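Run log // design_07
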């Protein structure tokens, strides 16, 4: 999203706000613009939240319009945060299989964005896909490793389900939120057995 006037939202393009959401996999940092949810970060401890917000300030060129969720505001970015929080709560409770929160893709682009959009629409809840298969789906059969890089750079994990991308031999592959988090998400979706304890 470019910095400047945005007629769609009646505000300034690039404005964003953030909140933290508690989840069974640990606290998540959520950030949104008037366009939609733009960032989900795992392990949002106070220190990680500080670092993630600094990175977002650097990437967007501005500080958040509001600190925290800003509940009660009618700004579109606050509505997107509220939707994301509500949908994540339902997802982790086992009641949501398809996220509808609008997404702001401004933190990705090019090949990464193509791969992430295909993942978002083409790999449903409870299914997995291999890195090579995903490369084939976007018309880049020699780009399995680049798909892995796209997963590692995914600004919207869980919502854009990079946890559903697995290694060809049946292994989990990598995951920015940690392999235990990936196991928990796949178990939630019925792909892996639930952990014993």
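design_07 sequence
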């Amino acid at each position: 999203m470019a910095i400047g006037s945005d007629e769609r939202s009646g505000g300034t393009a690039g404005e964003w706000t953030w909140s933290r959401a508690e989840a069974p996999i640990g606290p998540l940092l959520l950030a949104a613009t008037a366009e939609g949810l733009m960032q989900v970060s795992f392990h949002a401890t106070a220190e990680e939240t500080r670092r993630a917000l600094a990175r977002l300030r650097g990437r967007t060129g501005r500080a958040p319009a509001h600190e925290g969720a800003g509940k009660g505001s009618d700004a579109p970015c606050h509505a997107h945060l509220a939707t994301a929080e509500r949908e994540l709560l339902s997802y982790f409770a086992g009641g949501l299989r398809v996220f509808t929160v609008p997404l702001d893709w401004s933190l990705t682009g090019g090949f990464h964005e193509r791969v992430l959009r295909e993942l978002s629409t083409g790999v449903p809840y409870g299914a997995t896909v291999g890195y090579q298969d995903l490369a084939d789906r976007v018309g880049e059969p020699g780009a399995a490793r680049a798909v892995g890089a796209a997963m590692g750079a995914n600004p919207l994990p869980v919502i854009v389900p990079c946890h559903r991308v697995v290694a060809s031999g049946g292994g989990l592959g990598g995951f920015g939120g940690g392999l235990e988090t990936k196991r928990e998400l796949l178990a939630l979706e019925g792909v892996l057995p639930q952990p014993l304890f």
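The chain is about 35% helix and 15% strand.
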